[in-house]
Amino acid sequence: MRGEATVLHADLDAFYASVEQRDAPELRGRPVIVGGGVVLAASYEAKARGVRTAMGGRQARDLCPDAVVVPPRMDAYSEASRAVFAIFRDTTPFVEGLSIDEAFLEVGGLRRIAGTPEQIAVRLRGRVRAEVGLAISVGIARTKFLAKVASAVSKPDGLLMVEPERESAFLLPLPVERLWGVGAVTAEKLHRLGIRTVGQLAELESATAERLLGRATGAHLHALARLRDPRPVDTTHRRGSIGSQRALGNRPRTADELDLILTQVVDRLARRLRDGDRGCRTVVLRLRYGDFAKATRSRTLRSATDRTAVLLAIARELLAAAMPEIAERGITLIGVSFSHLARGDRLQPELPIDWEDGARLDTVLDAVRDRFGAASVARAAQLGRDPGWSAPLLPEHE
After folding, report:
1. In which band, very low, low, confident or very high, does the pLDDT at 38 lie, cut at 50, 70 and 90?
2. How far apart are the C-alpha atoms of 216 and 221, rounded to whole Å?
3. Catalytic one among 20, 45, 96, 102?
4. Residue 75 counted as an annotated binding residue
5. Any known ligand binding at 362?
6. Dihedral sign, Cα of residue 338, residue 341, residue 344, residue 346
7. Beta-carbon neighbour count of residue 317 at 10 Å?
8. pTM to 2 decimals?
9. Phi, psi of 55 (to 5 degrees)
10. End of a domain among 180, 200, 225?
11. What is the pLDDT of residues 192-237, one digit of tens each?
């Protein structure tokens, strides 16, 4: 028996832009772009004109000159996300958050008390619309992968259920780009091989897919193409890292600009560590150069910390080491992640203990931002800067 379709993938539509349209009625029905220098999000009206996330602001405005460009409001997006996740958890105790705007929900076993998976999804979508004022698309399937594909196909503001008996008919005609893990590079490689649909990939032998795409990638994508995805909705996994990245566009960036962006990212991530009563041992700097090659640099501490000053100093050292390469090749993306997370009660000060002043400052700043908002206190270097420079942080859902 193949099992029932009881996994829901719920994904808010054009999330950042939809929050802006919700909060400003005059923006509804108009093309909206969130972010100035680089597009962080675009409304469906802007997407219809070719605007895409991570596109340079100038290119986006050329495609859609009548778009309304608004600065990001991360506090508003986080608040909306928390409200939506509260509805998720009120629907079922089995919720696996993927990002700020999407999650898997397992609703098997709720039929007697809540109805069929489709009825549950209909109510969930209605509650999100009525209580949070946002549209959400939901896919329902037997596996997480198929549920995610179904929600994407149903967008915008849709609901699609893939019954077990029609899984092949649904998936195999779709383009390979729909497979979870197929990006632009892999898609181009598959296209060169004459493979454009999921069905064409599924027709290959597993060994052939691994030889063409690499062992891990080939095995993963071939399994998905043949409808193999045994992963359950995971409600117990605790995220092993947190991170944020910022697309920079193609124009040259000065060392001061990169330092400012790095500082903003680390500030937010360090606060997220403290909010979750955690510290980290490893700081990872991720870069994408002007030629779109990627690089990763990291440093691991002997013990975990949540102190902004310590984490920022490490991130700056990593960036300084990369500056000669950046000067030669340019940079289009910068990101930071903290890994090897530890609970706050396991944090141990490292001798000599010289972090005390920084700890007190972090505590005071956190309290001010909790009360008056994340933008209420800023570093002097940030004064007068375009608020669109703020790097988006994807909050954790646990």
Report:
1. confident
2. 9
3. 102
4. no
5. no
6. negative
7. 14
8. 0.67
9. -75, 145
10. 225
11. 989 999 999 999 888 988 888 888 888 888 999 988 887 778 766 5
Question: What is the rounded CA–CA span in Å between residue 73 and residue 202?
Answer: 43
140: β partners: 8, 161
| Residue 120 Rama label (left phi>0; alpha psi -120 to 50; beta) | alpha
Same-domain status, 179 and 325: no
The helix (run of H) or strand (run of E) holding residue 57 is: helix 57-63
Residue 258 phi, psi (nearest 5): -65, -40
CATH number, residue 272: 3.30.1490.100
Residue 391, phi then psi, degrees to nearest 5: -80, 130
pLDDT at 18 over 70: yes
CA–CA separation, 119 vs 91, rounded Å?
11
Q: Residue written as tokens 């506090």?
A: 75
How far apart, in Å, do the first and last CA atoms of the chain sit?
32
CA 194 – CA 149 distance, rounded (Å): 22
Give the amino acid at 134: L
**What's the domain count of the chain?**
3
Q: Identify residue 226 by its one-letter amino acid code.
A: R
Looking up tokens 């296209």 gives: 191
Q: How confident is the model at residue 396 (pLDDT cuts 50, 70, 90)?
A: very low
Q: Answer yes or no: 102 catalytic.
A: yes
